[in-house]
Amino acid sequence: MIVNTELEYKGNLFPSKIVSYSKDVDTLYFKTDNDVVLELTVVRDSVLRFRFTTTGNFENDFSYAITKYASRGYNKLEIEEQEEVYKVTTSKLICEISKLDLRVSLFDAIDGSLINEDELGFHWEESYEFGGNIVKMSKASHDGESYFGLGDKPAKLNLKGKRFENWVTDSYAYGKNTDPIYKTIPFYTALHNKKAYGIFFDNTFRSFFDFANERRNVTSFWAQGGEMNYYFIYGPQMSDVVANYTDLTGKPHQLPPLWALGFHQCKWSYYPESKVKEITQKFRELRIPCDAIYLDIDYMDGFRCFTWNKDYFPDPKRMVKELSDDGFKTVVIIDPGIKIDMEYSVFKEALDKDYFCKRADGPYMKGKVWPGECYFPDFTNPEVREWWSGLFKELVEDIGVKGVWNDMNEPAVMEVPNKTFPNDVRHDYDGNPCSHRKAHNIYGMQMARATYQGLKKYSYPKRPFVITRAAYSGTQRYTSTWTGDNVATWEHLWIANIQAQRMAMSGFSFAGSDIGGFAEQPQGELFTRWIQLGVFHPFCRVHSSGDHGDQEPWAFDEDVTDIVRKFIELRYQLLPYLYTTFWQYVEEGIPMLKSLMLFDQEDVHTHYRNDEFIFGEKILVCPILEQNARGRRMFVPRGKWFNFWTNEIVNGGKEMWVDADIDSMPIFVKEGAIIPKYPVQQYVDEKEIDQVVLDVYYKEGKEDSLFYDDAHDGYDYIKGRYSFRTFKLTGKPNQLIIQQHKEGKFTANYQQFLVKFHGLPFKVSSIQIDNVDIPLANVKMNGDNSMIVDKDFTQLHLVGE
Ligand code: GLC
């Protein structure tokens, strides 16, 4: 195997001096006298693309990661030739390219400060093994510089001092620091001198990142093939870096159906039908909200995708309908391996149409997965994706399945040492034929994409729901994801917390872990603590391998059931807040979970925090990660926060002890926040909601909050049938004013808000709604400081004595 051994390696080759320069609209070409060309594209004022070739000639420019919807355009572009450098200036960045050796330095265009500079810069090594280049980039790393991102790496959030590999890998029972695992997201954000920038290395070959590990002042990245092709994304706000990366690689193509944000129950496997029914009925009987039930591989006939085991599930359509009548959406697993069986129509068809992957020397790529020997569709061929999407017709349109779960799509192959295809397997790569070395990291993504296309087509007019295990940058456009086969240990609870945060800062917010742990069996306490964390992850599903015991909310003792119910109920109450957060993610690429450095990068204390995060924009959460804990020390970021349980106000910017017995966890709400809440329901849209609660947390000063709503499914919202409310809160020592601005054509069923005030520092003596005095007696100012207000109020004004 070729691993980058060193940066001083004698075989490294370097660009020599620039001999020509040319420009084509937004793209500049710098050519050296040893045939290296740097192609520099100004994507936006704050986003530059750097692409290098060593032969004077570029390969076809094709990327699965970059979306065609990515924003382009800049306000300013000036190019100046100076004695030693070419200087490229946009409204946000100055980029200097050394005439001597192509090395790049980047500065903030406003204050001139240095943001990032090449150390050796672009260099390469020729590989005799595959006849191409190992492409490398090295950049200076400064003391105090921190690094974040890279998808699902189960290591501390701050990546400084570590080296990572990107090669999508089936990693049963991985642990802290196992690398690589399921996903390849070659994007990181760096934070230095309170300014953030990001680098997205869009290269699908096996790649590596070294964050000042090999050499203290150098950060580097390289890949075993392909081009040195990276995007430099300037902030200076870290949240803008992440949003711009998400804009480049794509936001989810549509909102998920709201039910997908409910609670999901899964196991390997629930069967036969009577077992499935027993589980779903128990949820209703115990009044534990749940929206989705999953069928793992045993629902199939001999693990053949798109078939049913008729002994276990004699009439799937009826069952799915009955589950649906009870509020349960059925989600089924579909793997990429297609059983070699001439009697099996899916196999036969793919064979006839020549859709399976082949080895370089001709034969089919054969590998063992659950069904035994399989062939694997080449999802990098658009025709194969189209065919695959069509296979969902019966499952979705006829039987009524609402979601599909793609697994083993690394692709995983059993009983072989490298756990996947050999390197020589051929792929179409959308008309850019290549070997598995290049296609491996995007195979799972293209499978999930094809599945998504099927779900989208056959779920219409409802929204699709897909979940995938493997992913490359951009997969978030099509699906949600989970973190793979974790273990029921306290360490894995820590990992789950890290991974969900890291995925969010890597542009992929719709993620969650197997709550409770997939392998082994959690104690009730661990399960409870995991649920407490899991209800704050965008994707919230219990899953377990099943051979170690049960993992339903009632599988432990009654106390566990009660606490679990309470937290799942909290998630259902917070659904409008969560949905609003999702909408901001879909609209603006804002990560749904914000690690503290993403929330407050100016405070260096946040740069090494791991456990605490902001759920949406206003709720601070910190899971309990230890056994027998009655609370924990945690860092509360700057500002004032309300303890969610007690309404006690704390001043942040420091670490503090927070009580949290087993029935509680540390949750804080930002002062000034207005949080919309639904009543508890057993599943999404079980009830006609006639009143939405607005929890108002007083602040002396101003704070804006949002509330997005629509029909919770379907596409009418795209045509303007949504409601988007902005609440502007202004608090003074004896006054509170809330102004509401409303957009969109959606009319909800509810007519009223039940406004609940928290932390009002005065006793209310008069109230005006839309400038009309309301006699106190008429507005039912309840004992608990709540009142009912028409949902379309424009201004609510409380005055104190
Ligand atoms: C893999 C998946 C797991 C699933 C199992 C059986 O291990 O990661 O979630 O239950 O396969 O399909």
TrEMBL record:
Domain of life (superkingdom): Bacteria
One GO molecular-function entry: hydrolase activity
Residue ranges occupied by any Glycosyl hydrolase family 31 C-terminal domain in the UniProt entry: 589-675
Keyword Hydrolase belongs to the record: yes
Residue ranges constituting the Glycoside hydrolase family 31 TIM barrel domain according to the UniProt record: 254-580
Residue span, Glycoside hydrolase family 31 N-terminal domain: 38-210
Entries under Gene3D superfamilies matching the protein: Glycosidases, glycosyl hydrolase (family 31), Golgi alpha-mannosidase II
InterPro entries: DUF5110 (IPR033403), Gal_mutarotase_sf_dom (IPR011013), GH (IPR017853), Glyco_hydro_31_AS (IPR030458), Glyco_hydro_31_C (IPR048395), Glyco_hydro_31_N_dom (IPR025887), Glyco_hydro_31_TIM (IPR000322), Glyco_hydro_b (IPR013780)
Keywords: Glycosidase, Hydrolase
Residue ranges of every copy of the DUF5110 domain listed in the record: 693-759
Protein family per UniProt: Belongs to the glycosyl hydrolase 31 family.
Name used for this protein in its record: Glycoside hydrolase family 31 protein
Organism of this sequence: Gaetbulibacter jejuensis
